[in-house]
Design a protein that fits this description.
elongated, about 70% helix, DNA-binding, about 240 residues, homodimer, about 0% strand
DNA sequence: GACTGTAACGGCACTGCGTGCCATTGGGCA
DNA sequence: TGCCCAATGGCACGCAGTGCCGTTACAGTC
């Protein structure tokens, strides 16, 4: 149930890559339209495929199932999110990386607000999609946990701290995002949403305090150097 | 997909309540046995029903679906958990209630360690059950969030704090539980598991906020020193 | 003790999801 | 031109889940 289904298939023979992307888009469009107009349970895969102009069998070559056509970009999103973590400078405080990563995901939802709003309505009306949505958050939480754990090896209760911090950040992200969506997913609402999310830093466990203590210490040092005059050998 | 399916049906005519409970147990036993021996995907509902000595149609009168036969007690567990919250003295600190509630759930897993271990293996081997498990955690998190929100009305960022705290507690619970299960779900492991979970209190927002205030104070002091100090130019 | 209402069961039939298999098509590439 | 291979279409199959209806068995009533 977790294979990619649609691996880019290396060498690009046969129908062009643009063709595949086009079919995919047609299927997603058809699915969202039909779900919105006739309801999710009332729409069959046959309907979606027919509306997109392909065979039923082809639908299952693009999506693992009917539910996947609603939010088909989790795979790609997770990949990009992972890149954010791995590209982060090792010296950057954990908290900073984690918050930046979460805001990166936030921005991906912001990117096409219309689609986000449509999916939000759909997901909150259909029980099966709600379950799916909840389950689809897990890989994100796992990704956060994994990278946090990597930074906390050896620390006291590192595993626990990683799990708790990841859960907290993801929860804050979702809370902020849901509020934004519920309020209409407007352009003006984006910044308040970001701010609301960022306030999770005030609630974050010891990691936050540790990092900030570290920052404070470095600032104090800097101030001290400053107070002692320009004697220190800083270029 | 979310109706109870098995409402106690008020007046108890026809087959006795004991009869129903017995059939239910037989179905769960048959399901777990078959899943363990022949694999989850390879076991059909027909197989389970036949092994339990009832018709296929009857299975669906006890469970919403094949997946529900693995962990059929979530409904009851949620009810009991809700009772813990509502029975709590209004004067008891939020943190105390929340930790007690989570430990209550922990104790329910401890109650029959054998079944917990079997289900743990099963859930972590079958993808469909993993998804189900992840989704089934959501109602618990929601319950924690709801009761926390009730205690935090009016507080600054009450919604956010409720969501984050609930997520943190649930994550800590699951982390401790998973570790216990992975280590064999032994009797001796129970207390360490409880202790491990309780350490989440050290990571919870309230303390962190205090720390942050401290950090802010030190920063303010530093800035003040800087402002008062000799306005030496850039080093 | 026969009668009746009702809860639980059994057995069908049906829809629809997801998959395996194979033939067909059509665009690169030698 | 002919081969290769990716993508598709179409068919059939197994199985999950649901609706419907007849049957069974128990409980209370007369």
């Amino acid at each position: 149930m977790y294979r990619p289904v649609d691996a880019p298939s290396g060498a690009r023979r046969g129908r062009s890559a643009e063709g595949r992307a086009e079919v995919r888009r047609a299927l997603v469009d058809a699915a969202l339209t039909l779900f919105a107009t006739h309801g999710y349970d009332e729409t069959t895969v046959d309907d979606i495929a027919a509306a997109a102009g392909v065979a039923r069998r082809t639908f299952f070559r693009y999506f693992r199932g009917k539910e996947d056509a609603v939010s088909p970009d989790h795979e790609a999103c997770l990949t990009r999110l992972d890149a954010v973590f791995t590209a982060a400078h090792p010296g950057e405080p954990v908290l900073s990386v984690v918050l930046r990563a979460a805001e990166f995901v936030l921005d991906m939802y912001f990117a096409d607000a219309d689609a986000s709003r449509i999916r939000f309505r759909l997901v909150h009306e259909v029980a099966a999609l709600r379950d799916r949505e909840v389950a689809s958050v897990h890989p994100y939480r796992q990704l956060f946990t994994r990278h946090l754990r990597r930074r906390l090896v050896g620390a006291a209760d590192g595993e626990l701290r990683a799990a708790v911090t990841a859960a907290a950040v993801v929860a804050a992200h979702n809370q902020a995002l849901r509020t934004w969506l519920a309020e209409g997913a407007t352009e003006e609402g984006k910044q308040p949403c970001r701010d609301r999310f960022r306030r999770v830093a005030d609630l974050l466990p010891v990691e936050a305090a540790d990092d900030l203590f570290d920052v404070a210490r470095r600032l104090e040092d800097a101030v001290e150097r400053l107070e002692r005059g320009p004697a220190s050998g800083r270029p």
